[in-house]
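ARCHIVE CARD
Drawer: 12
Card no.: 0347
Subject: one protein chain, sequence and derived structure
Cross-reference: see card 0346
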Amino acid sequence: MSRDLKELLDLYNENAPLEEAFTIPAPWYLDADVELAESAQVFGRNWIAVGRVDQVAAEGQFFTVEIAGEPLVIVRGADGGLRGFYNVCRHHAAAVANVPCGTVQHLRCPYHGWTYGLDGTLKGAPEFAGVCNFDRAANGLVPVRVVTWEQFIFVTLDADAPDLMTSLGDLPARVSPLEIGKLRLFERKTYTLACNWKVYVDNYLDGGYHVPHLHKGLNSVLDYKEYTIENSARYSLQSSPMVSSQEHESFAATRTGDRAYYYWLYPNFMINIYEGVMDTNLVLPLGVDRCMVQFDFYFADVSEGARAANAESVAVSDRIQDEDVDICESVQRGLRSRAYGAGRLSVRREGGEHLFHRLLASDLCRAV
């Protein structure tokens, strides 16, 4: 990597304790070299959530996704096994699955008809008679590591990455009593924001700091003074007792229970849990100043009789998201100002953001 990248990374002190720490510097949200390093060292080497188990529940079901610039296909095999492959034909590199999802008996490249089994083995290479030293067994689809936790599917492009359960630490044990596996998908919504993906993660991890100012409705049902932040090695939990309030009726009706739980798993996956309600947020970079946030909404009851109530809950989430979009895009504009270099962090509120920045810096240091 260039010397310029090293100079940019040296602007941040990942060893500073929270009470002395600054945020990562503004150029990290703006620089193309940082973006390339993130693709390789953050998204290319960690476990990344890519989908749900129900998307590939039956034999031959598949979906496609792109991580760190790499096209992937996730598929359920004839033997019931879940597999991931680079979505790249071994002949001339076309995508073997060229639609977002579907059900197939095999994966056939639309370019020259090379056909692969659901286990990735090459089954057919038309008109290849006479090709010398061609090893059919060595020309199957290239696999990627894929595993599940709860109803979520994760992949890593790094063959040497620690297994997912090691990366999750005690998170599965902490989430297990919440029984999120009983919740069922209701709807998926996708948003595109004019900001760097890290701006969105920062906003999520500020310990509720912005909630009283930006999210009046949500704030009405959270006990902000009792809002807590707990960091583990690779995740952060923000949590708050719920309170009864009729100040904002739609929030009171859709955000209930004793406590709200907001889990963030490095680098880009969030799980938000209320009583009988969960949504997950997956944040993916689309460029230095653009990102996509994918929301999946889950409910304990997804019957037709519960549709109206569930739709109202999603609408409440939309209102919160709209408020976050506006402020995140404002931050992105401000990061380009000569008036800003880096900011300080609240010891009371922004420990999760501090964890994110230190993990990010640790990954990026491998690029120089």
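Annotation on reverse: The chain has ten helices and 17 strands. The chain has two domains: 48-160, 176-363.
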